[in-house]
Amino acid sequence: MNSQPKNVISTAPESGLLQTTSLDDATQSAIDALLHEGESQNTVASYRAALRYWAAWYGLRYGRRIQLPLPVACVFQFVVDHAQRMTAKGLASELPAAVADQLLQQGYKGKAGPMAYATLTHRMAVMSKAHQLRGLPNPCQDAQVRELLSRTRKAYAKRGALTHKKAALTKGPLEALLATCDDSLRGQRDRALLLFAWASGGRRRSEVTEAEMHALQRVGPTEFVYTLHRSKSNQSGHARPENHKPLLGVAGEALQSWLQVSGISEGRIFRRVLKGGHLGGPLSPAAVRDIVQARCVLAGVEGDFSAHSLRSGFVTEAGRQNVSLADTMAMTGHQSVARVMEYFRAQATVLNPGARLLDSDH
């Protein structure tokens, strides 16, 4: 999202000298370009989608074009329109069915049904950011609005309706997916991609598809170190020891085979495979999810898996194999212990020795 300093844009004087109290159009354009370039594509896309939804909802509910700052009453209405509450007739919200249908038909809603709580809070956060960047009074930070959202979360938690996390691709199911990868160009790409994402610490899908050859260093015949120059937890690209991700063993072997058969020596590491077995352009981040899900189908692995399952699967497997938290975080790049702990799944918790205190052989 672009930030524009309030009331400071002006045209430079005819002499060509700049004014100390204002910005000329060229400078403002440069500021906007830097702000846009410094933000991840996924973040920009999610902000745009959220703001488009707000504008469409506002237009349908109030019959006019959205303008900032929004009144606090409007933000309250947005919450009760999208947050479900228990009534005598069951769960309900205030969004009229006709409005919901139009939002769906016009492409602002991805699917029919109530909005997930996580989606609601994300859209509230985006609107809050829009006010903040413009230096406007922020209705989303109103004390009563924040209290309503807090109570709403507790209500969802009581109903067990909070976000369902994707299943973790631990070692067992991952190996089943890898077994479906043959020696074709596509098969070798998918094998290398899955292992690159998983074994290097559970890379996010954008980190996989944006991986470049210049960041890959060979340290052995089939051993590599990939330098992750920028990530979600290091968006400023600071040089850190944990930026270097080893790709050893089967992961290194798969990557070496892919590079050899594909002939890739520069640019993006992972590319599209076209009909006829020809190499195409770079993959989109969504392609990682598609590869994971397609390989699950081929392997007969049942569960709600996605690209993020590779990341949660790595952390879960690390816990199962008693890898230290420090070593796990060095691989994943997490800065927060609490955040890493969120990734552990039931498969790891059943190995907790504290669960067997009553066993006779404990």
TrEMBL record:
GO terms for molecular function: DNA binding. It comes from the Bacteria. Keywords: DNA recombination, DNA-binding. GO terms for biological process: DNA integration; DNA recombination. PROSITE patterns: TYR_RECOMBINASE. This is Site-specific recombinase XerD. Residues 164-359 form the Tyr recombinase domain.
